[in-house]
Design a protein that fits this description.
heterodimer, A: about 210 residues, mainly beta, Porin, about 10% helix, B: about 250 residues, 2 domains, five-stranded antiparallel beta sheet
């Protein structure tokens, strides 16, 4: 706060003083800025490290037996090396009635609350095919095709389920700090809704944008 | 008049310095025959420009082990850590990009980690934050989700950890803690109710320093769940995972 006030004061002082003596500035140009003023020395510790990436995504998720619906989520990643990164993600989607419920008319497998599907996961990614993409003659963008797999938990049908996810994605760096993603993921977990345990595959495709910091 | 002008100039300079604080960059001087600029932060990106000895570069940012630099004539590219370490500062000292090492591991303050494993037959996911008071003593807040066939549970605990040999690369620790566990039986089970109980735990584990800021960690914990029934429940848990320290 203090430094902001100082900035404003100094700023107005500069502006006033520069505006006021216009008529007096008839002498030839002379160097007014003294170059021997002390400058701040930047050290190795001032190098800005940009290994973290955060962002949002939206797409479509198909929940086995329960239809395909829009999915939204947030993701954060930490880049350990040029090859490996860790990713944490949270997403949610709604599900629809199964065909059985629609056809039978009255039978309801789940309440409205239980139909909400949300997941979180922690995954390890590997930049399998790093490269550059060219748009026209003068523009090159860094990209990477990555594979990713991890574990997490899915909240669906009234309980939480241990979930394995794996998939692949494409990262397109618009600038060094802004990236666009396209991602396809399979979320696998066991569901015993219909009396017997069943391994379900829930496919998600989404696009997103992230910021490196 | 001159004094007035000088004063104004000084003020303006100060003002712009205040505004641009954080805009400056570390400058390095090349001492090897040349510095290679890649088009991207990875080993496969081609070298598209070379800066010669004695020139200076501005180091703009770092991503993993790559540094983005700008030459005085405006070329920007990515340089490996190995090459940047062989430059010097403008003061003539060798550039020191301080890589965290095992010494930082024993003097760490914060530790953030995730683990997975087995909680009495259920799959368990765990995340924790630790703070070290001394090299030997630290405290941890830990969140656990156990996902079993018949129930899933969430548990939050606070623990105290003693690490008798903090300077060892593979260093054992002992822990004691307490917290709460909430158990939610599967909806497909009949007549089951959610319940929240207090837990106490004792555990033993090992941290192994990997590289940079990374630590591998494995632990065994024995829990006593103080249930509202007549008998307390005892649960054994095995977990392994990794953490980052700061």
């Amino acid at each position: 706060m203090e430094s902001r006030l100082l900035s404003i004061l100094l700023g107005s002082a500069c502006l006033l003083s520069l505006v006021a003596p216009i008529q007096a500035a008839d002498t030839p140009q002379e160097q007014v800025i003294q170059p021997e003023l002390d400058r701040r020395v930047y050290t190795e510790a001032d190098i800005d490290t940009e290994d973290f990436e955060v962002g949002v995504f939206a797409g479509i998720m198909s929940v086995e037996d329960f239809g395909s619906n829009p999915v939204y989520g947030v993701r954060g990643a930490y880049h350990i090396t040029e090859d490996f990164f860790l990713e944490a993600a949270y997403g949610r989607t709604d599900t629809e009635k199964t065909s059985f419920e629609t056809l039978s008319g009255a039978a309801q497998l789940l309440t409205d609350d239980q139909r909400e599907y949300s997941y979180y996961n922690l995954s390890v990614g590997y930049n399998l095919l790093p490269g550059e993409a060219f748009i026209g003659r003068n523009r090159a963008y860094n990209t990477a095709l990555y594979v990713i797999a991890g574990v997490g938990s899915t909240d669906f049908a009234g309980s939480s389920h241990f979930t394995i996810n794996f998939g692949a994605g494409y990262r397109f760096l618009v600038t060094d700090s802004i990236a666009l993603h396209i991602d396809a993921r399979d979320h696998m977990f066991e569901l015993d809704l219909l009396g017997e345990n069943k391994n379900t595959h829930n496919l998600e495709a989404h696009a997103g944008a992230t910021l490196f910091f | 008049m001159d004094i007035h002008k000088t004063l104004v100039a000084a003020l303006c300079l100060l003002f712009s310095a205040v505004l641009s604080a954080g805009e400056g960059h570390f400058q390095a001087q090349i001492t090897e025959p040349y510095l290679e600029l890649h088009t991207g932060p990875g080993r496969g990106y081609p070298i598209y420009y070379v800066i010669e000895r004695a020139e200076q570069v501005e180091v703009l940012k770092r991503r993993t082990d790559w540094f983005k630099v700008r030459s005085h004539d405006g070329h920007e590219g990515w340089v490996t850590r190995e090459q940047l370490e062989r430059t010097q500062t403008l003061a003539g000292v060798a550039t020191d990009l301080h890589e965290p090492g095992i010494g930082d591991f024993s003097s760490r303050r914060w530790e953030l980690g995730v683990m997975g494993g087995d909680f009495d037959g259920a799959d368990v996911l765990n995340a924790y934050v630790g703070y070290a008071f001394t090299e030997n003593l630290s405290t941890e807040v830990s969140f656990t989700q156990a996902l079993g066939l018949y129930s899933d549970s969430q548990m939050a605990t606070i623990n105290v950890l003693a690490q008798p040999f903090p300077t060892w690369r593979v260093s054992p620790f002992f822990t004691l803690g307490t917290g709460v566990i909430q158990t939610n039986p599967r909806v497909t089970l009949v007549q089951a109710e959610d319940q929240t109980d207090q837990v106490g735990l004792v555990g033993v584990g090992v941290r192994a320093y990997l590289t940079r800021r990374f630590v591998l960690r494995a632990e065994y914990k024995s829990y006593v769940i103080f249930t509202s029934r007549d008998d307390n429940e005892e649960i054994q848990e095995w977990k392994a995972g990794f953490s980052v320290f700061f």
